[in-house]
């Protein structure tokens, strides 16, 4: 299985803390979705948004056991669903992604979430608060 991530799981140290290893990966883009902070949190969610695109990481060879660990990490505001992403070589690839459920979209802020801002300002506090060290 393939997994497309757009938030905290793009950080190698966080992915390794959650599943115990860092899978093979490459950059990818998810079109027609926007990536926004969840209100009062350091992590994001994605929702459909025509014309937007979200940068992310595409992980390869994710097995069922690993998916179960990721499902537990992601929690109940997300649904794992199949999406089409563009790989770094511009190939269209189907992968799982954790998308905010429609009934929880009201929890998303209007502020875009970026990996650079997260790693520079919030990663250390996030990892400490989730006992990832």
Structure, described:
The chain is 26% helix and 43% strand. It has three helices and six strands; from the N terminus they run βαββαβββα. The protein has helices at residues 12-19, 64-74, 115-129; strands spanning 3-5, 25-38, 44-59, 78-87, 92-100, 108-112. Strands 1, 2, 3, 4, 5 and 6 form a six-stranded antiparallel β-sheet that branches. The mean pLDDT is 96.
What's the CATH architecture name?
Roll
Give the low-confidence spans. none
CATH topology: Hypothetical upf0131 protein ytfp
Distance between the termini: 28 Å
Using the CA coordinates, give the radius of gyration.
14 Å
Average pLDDT confidence is 96
Main CATH class = Alpha Beta
In CATH terms, the superfamily is: Gamma-glutamyl cyclotransferase-like
Secondary structure: helix percent: 25-40%
The structural domain count equals 1
Element string (H = helix, E = strand): EHEEHEEEH
Strand coverage percent: 35-45%
Query: Largest sheet at a glance?
Result: 6 strands, antiparallel
Helix/strand-derived category reads alpha+beta
Shape summary: globular
Number of helices: 3
Q: Find the count of extended strands (DSSP E, 2+ residues).
A: 6
Name the features.
133 residues; alpha+beta; Hypothetical upf0131 protein ytfp; 6 strands; 26% helix
List the SSEs and their pairings.
Elements: E1 3-5, H1 12-19, E2 25-38, E3 44-59, H2 64-74, E4 78-87, E5 92-100, E6 108-112, H3 115-129
Antiparallel strand pairs: 1-3, 2-3, 2-4, 2-6, 4-5
């Amino acid at each position: 299985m393939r997994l497309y991530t757009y938030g905290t799981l793009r950080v190698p140290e966080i992915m390794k803390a959650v599943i115990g290893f860092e899978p093979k990966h490459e950059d990818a883009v998810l079109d027609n979705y926007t990536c926004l902070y969840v209100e009062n949190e350091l992590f994001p969610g994605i929702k459909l948004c025509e014309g937007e695109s979200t940068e992310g990481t595409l992980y390869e060879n994710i097995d069922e056991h690993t998916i179960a660990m990721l499902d537990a990490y992601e929690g109940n505001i997300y649904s794992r669903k199949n999406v089409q992403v563009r790989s770094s070589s511009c190939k269209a690839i189907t992968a799982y992604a954790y998308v905010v459920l429609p009934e929880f979209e009201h929890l998303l802020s209007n502020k875009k979430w970026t990996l650079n801002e997260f790693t520079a300002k919030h990663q250390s506090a996030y990892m400490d608060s989730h006992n990832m060290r």
